[in-house]
Amino acid sequence: MHNNSKIAVTVITGFLGSGKTTFINSLLKRYSEKQFALVENEFGDIAIDTKLIKGVEASQMFELKEGCICCTITDEYELVLQELAERFQNVEHLLIETTGVADPASVIRPFFRDEKLQELYSFKGTICLLDALNFHNDYEKDLKYKQIAVADFVLVNKTEKQFSEEKEVMKKQVRQINPMSEIQFAKYGIAADFELEKVTYRPKFYPAFQGEKSLHSRISTQTMVFSKPINKSEFEYWLSYTLDVYKNEIYRIKGILCFENEAFEFVLQGVGGSYELFEGEDIISRNNSEIVVIGKLDKMDLATNF
Ligand SMILES: Nc1nc2c(ncn2[C@@H]2O[C@H](COP(=O)(O)OP(=O)(O)OP(=O)(O)O)[C@@H](O)[C@H]2O)c(=O)[nH]1
Predict the structure, then answer these.
(1) What region holds the CobW C-terminal domain (predicted)?
(2) Helix (H) or strand (E) holding 11
């Protein structure tokens, strides 16, 4: 019970597909005695991530869809934060997962600007997941750097195949962008020495971005919904072809799929041109498949005949 004490808040940021949801699932498992609430902001009008989170009561999970907290849904975000604290007196720690294209400064700012939120919450800091496998591709460098610059803690993820020399180089690169943050290395969101309580906020100056209206104004999403079971091999053929043709434009693809002659839903996870398609934990209960594609998609036609 938090009663008169404030709810701790940690923001989890990081570029598309860096491992934010994977990391949150690992926290929920590890700190299973803690009462968490989760605010999930997804880019796109279908929430895939909330379906992949295991360990927070559905009523304590808040989805902010159809926009991004950092630019289009600020008012809704602040209302959700107030309502959450007032309705769920048992919550001890709030985790906020930003979209992979968010400017985290805008997500953090209300905790320092809004007096009401300051009475309810104690801001503990920002963790940035950094994708070691895809950090060096050319996608949206400004945005990736800003997410690192704002963080109190950088968790360099996907390091299972990295040698110590590569880790040292990576550390130096992060230090150049953010000399203040703590840095640890993780595999599937798990770092040996990580302690949530030790992530602490270090005051920083968050200048408003002077260039384009938003750091991600060029990035958009397309959602594809299919109401009949799909043929798996035809789908895989289409997927490999599409990811190959549009490897510089599609930053992220994810979905929950219903294939012909399969009992369980399949989960699609694609980051930076490669993908995984694996059987999920849920039995198919409806014949719908939903796919979200994120990237520079303005001139792209992803129509299919499944
Ligand atoms: N090889 C490898 N893959 C990982 C690791 N951590 C996560 N992944 C995979 O990376 C993909 C994306 O992971 P998510 O946790 O969904 O990433 P995210 O940051 O929440 O993605 P968005 O919300 O779309 O930005 C999934 O296929 C994960 O299984 C890791 O340490 N190593």
Answers:
(1) 219-302
(2) strand 7-14
The CA distance from 55 to 211, in Å, is 40
Ligand 1, residue 24: give the atom nearest the CA: 15
Indicate whether 87 belongs to any domain: yes
271 Cβ below 6 A of ligand 1: yes
Name every residue whose Cβ is closer than 8 Å to that of residue 102 and which is 6 or more positions away in sequence: 13, 41, 68, 69, 70, 147, 216
Contact 49 CB / ligand 1 (< 6 Å): yes
Confirm if 224 and 290 have CB atoms less than 8 A apart: yes
Distance (angstroms) between ligand 1 centre and the Cα of 235 equals: 21
- 24 and 173 housed in the same domain: yes
Number of domains in the chain: 2
**206, part of any domain:** no
CATH number of residue 28's parent domain: 3.40.50.300
Domain span at 20? 7-198
Instruction: Convert the pLDDT of each residue in 233-285 to its tens digit.
Output: 999 999 998 998 888 889 999 999 999 999 999 999 999 888 999 999 889 88
CA triple 223-211-155, angle to 5 deg: 65
C-alpha 280 to ligand 1 mean position (Å): 15
Domain contains 203:
no
Give pLDDT tens digits for 60-114.
778 776 566 666 666 788 888 998 998 888 999 999 999 898 888 888 988 988 9
Same domain, 242 and 164: no
Q: Which of 198, 231, 251 marks a domain boundary? A: 198
With a threshold of 0.95, tell me whether the complex ipTM lies above it. yes
CA of 301 to the centre of ligand 1 (A): 26
Q: Which helix (H) or strand (E) holds 62?
A: strand 61-64
Q: Does ligand 1 come within 6 angstroms of the Cβ of 216?
A: no
